[in-house]
Design goal:
With 271 residues, the protein is an alpha/beta fold. The relative contact order is 0.11. Strands 1-4-5-3-2 form a five-stranded mixed sheet, covered by helices on one side. The chain has a four-stranded mixed sheet with strand order 6-7-9-8, with helices on one face. Strands 10-12-11 form a three-stranded mixed sheet, covered by helices on one side. The chain contains six helices and twelve strands. 36% of the residues lie in helices and 29% in strands. The protein binds zinc ion. Zinc ion binds next to α4.
Amino acid sequence: MANDAGGAHAPNGRRVSGVPRLRTARREKASHLTVELAGVPLSVTVIRSAGRRKTVSIAVDGDAVRVRAPMAATDAELSNLLCRRVGWIQARLGARSARPEPPALVSAGRVPYLGRSLTLVIEACRTGRPAAQLHGDLLRITVPGPTPAEEHQERVRRALVAWYRARAIAELPRMVSDWSAVSGHTPARVLIRDQRRRWGSCAPDGTIRLNWRLILTEPRLAQYVVVHELAHLRHRHHQPPFWEEVARIMPDYQERRRLLSKVGHELLASL
Ligand SMILES: [Zn+2]
């Protein structure tokens, strides 16, 4: 099952303001300008042309901001213009900056687990290896310390991921065997994998691979992925007979599929 994710890119080259032209020679000059937008320094590529351009245009493409301007436009004028358009620029850089922050891996921070929200309790220990243990809704993570803050976060993250993966190895094959019984399709084997772009796959040899991050979703969404891959044991395509088979096994699959596509991108990108 391929992930349907597709990042929306900002439109290019929208014209936002006018500045009078001065020259007509066909020359271009590129430079860089750093402006502070809402307290964050932003490097902007400025292309001045000595042609017939009369206006300034601002384009945002991914993380890059580019300004086209007449040769006569000064850096100060362009900085002013960029500052006036800060909201517009930020909205277009938003595909990056508006993405939800990864969960704060600090005590009292919350992390998802099979539709539950667990509260982290992070403790330092003198020696030993990082470890994680679940007590009710508290996930206690112990890491050797003291270490610099950044390294500490990375150790906590690694301990958390190791715990998730162990839970995925325990839970997901069980889910597969439950739905094998329902569907009548049995995979040759089930492997738990670390994948950024897909939730699962089904190989021609009957191996089903599942992303450990399914453990971050509600069980019914993970179950949909399991059923999707089991149905591929019967049909190795996404034509109508495949979807009929998914519906036979899981009549409400469409709602689960829709929900997964809503929350999925964020979870695939997390941790
Ligand atoms: Zn598929």
